[in-house]
Fold each of these.
Amino acid sequence: MLKVRVANNAGFCFGVKRAVDAAVNNAMCNTYMLGDITHNRAVIDRLKLLGLKTVTSVDELPSGDGTGGVIIRSHGADKKTYDFLRQKGFRVIDATCPFVAKIHDIVSKHYMAGYHIVIIGEAAHPEVQATDGWCDNTATIIDLDSDLSELEAYDKLCVVCQTTYDGKKFEKLSEKINKIHSKTVEIFDTICYTTYERQKEAVFLAKSSDTILVVGDRASSNTNKLFDLCAAVNPNTYFVQSVGDLKDINFPRSGVVGIVAGASTPTESIMEVKTYMGQEFGEASNEEFLEAINKGTVAIREGKAITGTVLSANADGIRVNVGVKNDGFIDKTEVCDDGEYNPEDFPAGMEITAIVTKKRDDVSGCVLLSKRRADLMRKTDEAVDQIRNGEMFEMVVKKDIKGGLIGSLGTYRVFVPASQIRLKFVPDLKKFVGKTLKLRALDIDDINRKIVASQRVILQEEKEEKDKKAEIFWENVKPDVVVAGEVKRISTYGAFVSVDGIDCLAHIDHLSYSHIDSPDEVLEIGKTYDFLVLKADREKQRVSLGYRELQPHPFEKCMEKHPVGSIIPGKVISVLPYGAFVEIEPGVEGLVHVSEAAAAYVKDITEVLHPGDAVTVKVLAYDEQHRKTTLSIRACLDEGTVAVKTAKPAKKPVEESGVYTDKAENTVLADLLRQVGDDNQDKKD
């Protein structure tokens, strides 16, 4: 007996399903499909039966009156098409796949930034043509065999890829582009994740099956790729567009038959192939498979939401026709969450959705249902509706399994493949259990209430944004440029400042003109200040900033506050053989030459001045150009000022003739020295 295996990733992908649903929900006589919604003739024919019309270009549309609608298919459209439709008054129903829309955004932004756009894909494919329209149709479209030499003419390249392109071919082309082009190149891997998984699973199934069936329309690009991949590893690979094609295949009487299907293949086509194989070769139909793919068949399973019609309602509860032999019954306690059940609110014929709590009640024989649980499920699943267009959501990881992480969003089970957790390989999944991940949905399976999500795509976007900011940063941050930065943290040797997300260092020596013990004496964590770029080394990723360089120099204030001739207090900072440096304002020091340190000649200045001494000095001169100040202690002695208050322990008072005291010692000594000097001068005269 033949055994039939069906690929998990078979049938409509998220983008195609979304587009087909949009077409069905908007079916009316004045709604048009701009191009085939999907590359499958059976699907298009069914949509036409609903009243939808297909036009190949906007030129075929009638004049808009504000009521007509135009459906943009999952492949998207160029910018001019959107502008034209809105200008003509059409209602635009945008069913562009979110992953395709992301490519359009990348192309538009980079084209505006001066990049030449390169699209890897099939030039005739509608998705590629639509993408080209977001750069005024100037893109270079390449395939594996294309000549890439013309790309050398461009300084900046932005490379994107058709979402359904072959992953291995994309990698080879990326390597080629990086080798031949030494200028700015940004390559975006925009192949849809589900395409990767579908292709990977198809190859695995082809290798492990005796015969492989590829179900879909030959007009479908991604289905043709699946066929090529399977045929490369299994010679018994057949393209199946309809059940009629199966009659020409010489199947063995035993073994394994694998079934794969493209993203544009409806589930009904897969079901027909599966059923045919069961009837012809005795392979029993898989109930779960049929339930998952055939929406028209009602299958009763506990925990499943089903919709039925009210037959009657009384004080005990509601009897419901659910499309099977036995009626459904909703007990009064399972009708409303608040317990306020009123039978009159549920007339016969009313549609009602409920959760199956028991397939068959032993007493009544009814299918037991809960409307209360269905209402709660609908509320919690509103979060799922909010992420269908690629919005980010958060999830707490509940457990790790082989190949990924598991969590939930509402009543949907969320699976994050190991390859979609980080940008690099994650060897240990257990460390993520209990952690919150930022995710974006890659695929939403509403039938089985499953979501495949990725944190990697968000991290990749953040990295790309960070790289862009870094590029702008290094292009603009040069020495002598003033930048605004936020103080993030402080250490003993300086402050770390964030400038456009890049860490820079403002050394403590460049924070204040006066001595400080810690940067927080000048800067406060969390506040933003202006800094002067002192050094910028892109190779070493280091930037040195200065804060004091943008502040008024204390020398200028000192000149205004203490003009030449002023007598002011100061403090001896250091003593050298030729003089002493005295601080007269924070950050401003002046030189007292040894000849100006006392009233008479001093051989060793350390005999009269010491670091830490409080002194009184007179400003003799300023050198504004070199920011130097000349001071004098002797000039203050001439004016009878107590000029020096030593920092050393005071000596005992000298009791000679009762003249000296502690307080006047220096002044009297100076007077005596001056008197001796005058006597010597008289003798010379």
Amino acid sequence: MSAERSLGGTAVAEKFAKIAVSDVTYWLDKPYAYRIPDEFSGKVEAGMRVAVPFSKGNRRSEGVVLAVTDECEWERPKPILEVLDSEPVMTPRQTALALWMRERFFCTVYEAVRAMLPAGLWFTKTGKRKVTDSESRFLRLAVPPEEALAAAAAKRSRAPHQAAVLELMSAVGEGMCSEIKLLTGAGAQTIKALIEKGLIEDFYCETFRRPEYREGAKSPLPQLNAAQSGVLDGLKPLLDGDEAACALILGVTGSGKTAVYIHLIRRALEQGKSAMLLVPEIALTPQLLQTMSSYFGEDIAVLHSGLTMAERYDEWKRIRQGLARLVLGTRSAVFAPCENLGIVIIDEEQDESYKSESAPRYHARDVALYRCAEEKALLLLGSATPSMESRYAAETGRYKLFCLTERYNRKALPSVSIVDMKQELRAGNPYGVSSFLRGELQRNIELGQQSILFINRRGASKIVTCGACGFSYTCPNCSVSLTWHSVGSRLVCHWCGYTRRVDACCPDCGGELKYIGEGTQKIESELGELFPNVPVLRMDTDTVTEAGSHEALLERFRREKIPIMIGTKMVTKGLNFANVTLVGVISADQSLYSGDFRAAERTFSLITQVIGRSGRSLLGGRAVIQTFTPENPVIKLAAKQDYNAFYRHELEIRRIQQCPPFTALTVLTVTGANEALVLRCCNEIKRALDAETSRTEGLRVLGPAPYPVVKVKNSYRYRITVAGARERLARPLCAQILQYFNNNKEFRGVSVYADLNPNE
């Protein structure tokens, strides 16, 4: 319906807003119509946030305006209570993206909006913005420089600070008040006196709180070899064209993919376009930012969760205002409000950290594909070990494929040795470091070269158990064993954070407790015994908790040439240290037998990537893989760094299993504190899905099945998987399941959510 109201005797058409409200669940999420009151006439636009009454109790809730219209299907719509933004915070394209995310990732529109906007833009419970705009006081001359210098000469003897300020400002014209006071030693009274005399004037300007980083020395664009030039020539038409495109660079570690990225970014910026470069780990951003600043100066913004709330908000504003046209960052940077997007580059595109594990459960690659399709931009994926899905898309023609088969400096890939740890146990080696790897480390120490050791587990020991009765410590909140951390002498659950002290003896039988398995802390301790007085650097989530600690640790490793760095997954990719000539994989089997269909792919990628950290200079490199299953084909192919052979081997297994890339998996997860009720809900969902899929060709229902860790934070987790060649067939069916079972009072206390192609 449309309506009119009388304003001063003149009929005025009423306006209505379609609003996505924050306090709704997925199954109730839809555009709600609200009336725009007279006092807000002309002040409400699409993309603004507003406060509205919601539900029967008219609870005050936030909402984002999706559209302003003359029509309303409701007879008496509620009025908007307050307009929270002075201008839209969402562009029409961003609003369309949020609506698309709702349909694809089973999230609410407001969950998508929250993922897209910086946290500093949101409001506290008292209605204040979490981060306010920053302004700084500036000073400038109010008289010609000649007059200012004459006044300075007259004041030099009786007012030296005033003279110093005038002389400095005659040279620079204007500057930040705090810096001028610091350089001249002037105080507030000096500045006030000069303003009162009309010699200078002050004004306020918006300033940006930027993350600290080491700016690289200005450099010309990197030289490309013949192979890189060939890839660049093939990508230029895709970047310059008027249609969206997607390409994959399959390049061995050290082949110079970054140099190709730099040339493409320069080309996009010269065309007046913006660019994005995403990396999987926060630890990679400082090194990348320093490199990129040497080519692009201040025209860069960085977005990741390691920034302060104020820094992230200000970087978002710089992008939005067009002050930074190159965006560097991790997964969430894919939402950067870039205008005239030219290229999105996702480096190490196979990494699972590009997939969000909480609502909205999006994959950065999917969002980038959508944005590039809408904005006619180029999506470029790069990796030495692309995901099976991306490599298959290139093979079937959906993506363009470009290959770099040799390292940039024509150096050979590292030579790799496989060590059978069963033999080490038989030989009585008590350490997690094999005798062969110990010798290689000793050789590197003597040569003054550096080594990186990788083990994908933090802590000291995986479990603490009794050799007599078999008792082991488990988390009371989760179905996992507690991990022993020697630092702090605590047992820790890596899922919920529960901690406790270990007993002097077995609490069940009084027997002696055994510490089994290795983590980063234990290997660090063993290295201290094997190589006394040799510095060792540990890099895991226990050592990089503070903002900027990634950069500080890596800079220490580089600057002090620390002989050995041991770390978890964060040391496996993107790092480039010329003096690193040895890499050791402590336990290659750790991720290989997890029961996940992606286990082989994940293990191959991690091993290949970490081996690639070695020998990236003229010194050459070597690597050691320690394993209890040296004959496993994944281990052998990773040692050869033969991605193509692994891809063929794994693709055939996926074809037989009917797993991605041949099938899309939509997983319905059922959680709750009552395991019996969760299982009953799973069985009901299974029956409902079986009934529906029997009428839909191409869909299969798998499960219910428990997660590998079935209990987390006192909540049980089971899943039902809907598999089909096209996920859009399963999407409406899963949406109906979410709506029905989350509203079913029989299953109160049970939550159901959906995820497309999850990592786990």
Amino acid sequence: MDINNVRYSSVNSSVLIQRFILATVVLSLFLPAHVKAQSGATIEEIVVTSRKREENLMEIPDSITVFSDAVIDTANIASIRDFADLTPNLTIIEQLIPSTQTMTIRGMTTVQNGELPVAFIVDGVNVPSMNFINQELIDIERIEVLRGPQGTLYGRGAIGGAINIITKSPGDEFELKGKVSYGRGDALFAGGTVSVPVADNASFRISASHRDEDGLIDNIGAGTEADPVDEQSVQARLLFQPTDKLSVDLRGRYLTGEGGGIYLVQISTDEIDDFSLPVSSNLNGESERDIGSVSLKIDYTFDNGMTFTSISGYSETDSYWTGDGDFSTVPLFAQWWEIDVEAYNQEIRLTSDDNSQFRWILGAFYQDREDKEFADFGLEGPDRTVIPFPGGAREIRNRESWAVFGQVDYDITEQLTLSAGVRYDEEENTTEFGQLGTKPSDTFEEWQPKVSLAYNWNENVMTYFTFARGFRPGGYSNSSGLLYKNEVSDNFEIGAKALMMDGRMQFSAAVFYIDFSDQQHFYSRVTPAGVQRFIINIAETTNIGAEVELALRPAEGLSLNFGFGITDTEIDDFDGTGIFEGHNTPQVNDYSINASAEYTKPISGPWSFTGRLDFEHRGKVDWDLNNLVTTSGKDYLNLYAGIGNGQWTVFFYGKNVLDEQQPTAMGTDVFGPGIHLRTPSRPASYGGGIKFNF
């Protein structure tokens, strides 16, 4: 097929965005802040630590979505996928195995064996790779999703934003809470937390969970479910505060488990949305993984209010999976993979007093990381063994990186604040390709500046302009060992935040323009030598889009939330030849809408009812550079209902109750033009359980 003859068509996003900008300005500047609501509770002030100091969400010149512990509970958020569904311009979908996910934010997407498009931070520690992020979310205090480059404070990989997860701290009082639930697919979950003071200046908190599911996706070839899960996890924190100036926070987490994986269906382009085609492999995929991490955070506050912080972190994961190689009932081909990651992080920083007119942060970061990947593809042998073809993967990547950074915030006037920062990152990457007999090495570096101007029109309305640069380091393509370059983005953003109706309505909006250079793109092909995987650069891409979020408390006990995101990606120059020019980049939904409603009503005495509904619509997505393999828009609905008295709660839940299905992992043209591999998403699930809190 001559790709130059492929016609490009899309929604006229520029017109929609122009109207959105006009509506944003009108709403934020002219809607009176003194408008009265008939009844209802005000929206509580939200304090976040996304910029490494405590700040009011409404005063930060960034597009941010925040989930409190209360929302995490009633929205039944148990994984990163769950909160992504409620976040504009963020999509996370399951991949081939539990240890990997596909993440897209503002048109920037995951690259297999590359870096995530966001920085992922848990209690101040940067998670080293995508193999660590898909874990059970237990005992979480708050989740903060920042959109737009955050490289100044979080460094390489934060090209699309940052996800900041804060677990609950030990307290000075005894606490016991837990949850047990059972649902479709024999899905059993049990988890609990205990927090105890162990001395006048020390406290300890430990949480554990167990998840055991038979699965929901039938593999008719093997006669069993393709997606079982059996995992256990434990996390603990010890908080020691010997003085009012010194705090020592020791944290650890461990997960072990096994499950399914590699459940692919061979389809044609016309069958992209036909999910009547079942998984039909004679070998059911099997996966195992162990994840461990430990961190130590030390804070010391000087008499002048300046704080010194040291964060040390160590992470390790071992993962293994095996499965069919031809994805049919014929015992022909098989494959196995093993990926091990080990990383040590160290960050130190000095932070000024939060309340001064001139605020600053200075810091340095170091990481030493090793990734090992071993894989074989070949004939299926006895007892799930593989008789390998030549090639395979025998790769060891050593990445050593360091960075220095700084940021200042200066209140020029009572209304106008300037924020400016810069970071320099450098990574030395040495990759040993055992299958190729090569050991290339290179250094990847980039300056990442960020400048924001925020203007407070009054105490309730703020607008801002931000410029920020982000980057993902380059590396070496898996199958060829060829070098791919740094991915760099320049992000221009204007936004507005407002608190209205006597604090009962909260509004935020942002419009962005991204000039993208050398965007990294992953694709794979099945050849006689096995599965070949490649990472290449797209020379020039432009992303434009917008986000709007609205929170409303119209009546006592009623909360309404709305979010909208739109992203229009366009390839300006693929490789200088004109091919793919004007096409969308793959794996990007053109827009998304999410809406939530939560209602709490007293019943009798301490007992009350809480109901919640979460709806999401995802627009169409292209899976290939030709824009020929396209998934239509999808609708998702989650439900929750519970009756409780503050100590005991009986609840029921439903996820994806509309039984909508979409591709998750998608390999286009892997067996030749028009012959693809697709992993289906999980169908509807529902169940119920009991929660307690003492």
